[in-house]
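cron nightly-structures :: item 1 of 1
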Amino acid sequence: MLERIKYRRQLRRFRKEKIHTKKEHGAYIKKATNEDEKDYMIYEMRNDLAEKDLRVRELQTVHFCREADKLLIPKPDWNDEGMWEGFKNPRLKRIVLTTKGVSDLMARIRDERKERREIYRDWAAIIIGILGALIGVGNYVELWTKV
């Protein structure tokens, strides 16, 4: 639970940094005097935003792979290029999950958690039913002992 809170906090921080970067570069782009300078500022902004997006994807990859390991869920196959990115891209420092890989792994995690919750829910229903029956029997016995 604590890891999920840390993940959400880091994700929020990265998104705030991205918004700040957009505002900061937007101000510089408005101050640009000629087209070449403006194009260069836009290029720099896109590079900075791509770097922020990469950090978010790295965070997601680490988080969801840890969750999958905890729940004993298999991670996507390394040979599936639709799931992993970074083998052929020199810009990426690490191998990260693609959007398809993240959504696939999230769906597996969700399904596993749902199955585990259903097990507890079934047992809780059984226990509550037995307790209700015992209380009913106890009240019935109490009524007959008073008569």
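cron nightly-structures :: done
The mean pLDDT is 88.
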